[in-house]
Amino acid sequence: MHGGKTHGGIESQPHDWVHGLVGGASPQSGVEGLMSLPDTAGLDPIFWLHHCNIDRLWQVWRTTSASHADPSSPNWLKGPEVAGRDPFVLPKSEEADWTFTPEQMTDIAKLGYAYDDTSLPTGLPHPALRLERLGASPEAAHALARSQTMTASATAELLGANKEAVRLVGSKAETAVALDASISGKVAASLQAIAAAAPSAPDRVFLNLENVRSNNDAVAFKVYVNLPSSADPAQHPELQAGSIALFGASSASVADDTHAGDGLTYVLDISHIIDAMHLAGNFPVGALSVRLVPVHPVPESANVTVGRVSVFRQGN
Questions:
Q1: C-beta separation of 22 from 53 below 8 A
Q2: Are 107 and 55 in contact (CB under 8 A)?
Q3: Phi, psi of 315 (to 5 degrees)
Q4: Neighbours of 34 (CB within 10 A)
Q5: CA separation for the pair 200, 186 (Å, rounded)
Q6: Tell me, what's the pLDDT at 106?
């Protein structure tokens, strides 16, 4: 679903960033536009244009690889009815309201529409390029890319986590994630195996920001891994793990009868950063540093916290 670039920038979170940017507010102002808040976003006419494009991007993603498929769990397919909540209802002007499930909305041909353009956005690297950079021959890389799928049965293991919650105030926040030596060794071995005569699929590594809470949905920040302490983040796009916009965070942070107030969790693919460390001979390491760099300085009143920063490997 990413457009433009595969890592970093607005493209790593196209839905939430557009909501925040169109909302047009900064955290310091204390005023948020209609698009910045889930409860009011649908009142802005551009909301509908934005979501049409998000749906189109989903369709692009689904058609680019055999491994790109919608979730198959009943919770996703049946939606609220699984949890005993009110179903989705679509009002019709001259007919009875239509009650529907997410499963009924997945086949756009049955819904009677099509997109003019579902081609892959320019600038996205072919999956085989990662394998070639890691040492596979072009022939082996393309063969492995065609066969490679990441399924629910793939192993996910915790590489490490930081020790305490992170509070984002001002222009940055930093934390360290200690890595388990044995799990790091598995990642390193999978990266080294790419250069073998019969390469196997390399691990992917993900950075999780868990239980992110905020009083202000206009907060947006970029996430960097192993950025030198005195470095200008803008000069190191290769170390950017992704970007986060806190659309919906304020509602998710409130504990009430139906919500636990646990905030939101974000998952960023940092495989490209780990790959670069491996190729430079700098992986495994004992820890990774993680820096959060907001677009605008964050006031204390926004109360932005990250409950835990963790790193996982996913592979065989």
A1: no
A2: no
A3: -175, -160
A4: 18
A5: 13
A6: 87
